[in-house]
Amino acid sequence: NRSRSYAEMVAGYRLTSKVVSRSLTARGDAVTVRALAYETTGAVQTYLLDYLVTGGIIVDGSSHLLRTSG
Question: What whole-number percentage of the chain has pLDDT above 70?
Answer without folding.
Answer: 96
